[in-house]
Specification:
elongated, 4% strand, two-stranded antiparallel sheet, single chain, 66% helix, 4 strands
Length: 255
């Protein structure tokens, strides 16, 4: 049996698949947050960033397919491992021994379900425009870049170029209190999921030891707290009026 077959057919292989796909998804959520935080700058930044990504064309879709594949493998491996763990229990305990288990680990499956629902809604909201069509970027007036958007010092979106108004889409979308509340709760669940995921990932690949497990736990807590606060800052700033629509064409269209 080849290496790929062993990864999918053995428990250890499935744990490694969960760790690798988890690492891919962690890298994505970090990049996603960094890109979204540009909404706190002038509209050129997040609009230029979004236009830059769409300039990738087929490469962007290849990245999306890879991410979806990683999500699918991650969910499949988690499901199979959970079923195997239940099947391995010959005797059901009358008392659940969860004293040593962390809250994050006990909620891992439930947070995973909420996160999956969040991802699906997020795609329907900001990628395909099904959730809030009135505020979707394709239904808003185009934004004209006031300055070049640069990556590594090189202009990748030119001044004067018309691009989708992602800045206004995000702000108008989060003005809905129900949507913002759902995002905040879902991001909280995702942060809890990531917290336990860090521990499991390092343990699966054999990089966690008693010598530095406490330090790893502290780093994971700090990372997840920063991730949660960074994401919550966006709907929080919109609801408090800190972030407002700046594009005149969109502001006029919403009157």
């Amino acid at each position: 049996m080849n290496l790929v077959g062993r990864l999918f057919s053995s428990s250890i292989g499935r744990k490694i698949l969960m760790a690798v796909t988890g690492l891919i998804l962690i890298a994505f959520v970090i990049g996603h947050l960094v890109g979204n935080l540009q909404v706190f700058q002038d509209p050129d930044h997040v609009n230029g960033y979004a236009a830059f990504l769409h300039h990738w064309g087929p490469t962007l879709w290849a990245a999306r397919i890879m991410l979806l594949a990683a999500v699918a493998v991650h969910i499949w491996a988690a499901t199979v491992l959970t079923l195997e763990n239940h099947a391995a229990r010959d005797v059901k305990y009358s008392v659940r021994h969860t004293i040593r288990a962390t809250l994050a680990s006990r909620l891992m499956r439930w947070t995973g379900v909420v996160v999956l629902a969040f991802v699906l809604y997020h795609l329907a909201h900001f990628t395909f425009g099904f959730a809030q069509p009135a505020t979707f970027k394709e239904n808003l007036g185009a934004y004209t870049m006031a300055n070049d958007y640069r990556v590594g010092g090189f202009p990748v979106v030119a001044k004067g170029e018309s691009v989708p108004d992602v800045h206004s889409m995000m702000i108008l979308g989060f003005q809905n209190r129900v949507v913002s509340a759902f995002y905040i709760v879902a991001i909280g669940m995702l942060s809890v999921h990531l917290l336990h995921g860090f521990d499991s990932m390092f343990q699966s690949v054999g990089w966690r030891s008693g010598r530095w497990s406490r330090a790893l736990r502290l780093v994971a807590i700090l990372f997840c707290a920063a991730y949660f606060l960074g994401n919550v800052a966006i709907p929080g700033a919109v609801l408090t009026g800190r972030l407002q629509v700046h594009a005149p064409s969109v502001a006029t269209a919403q009157r």
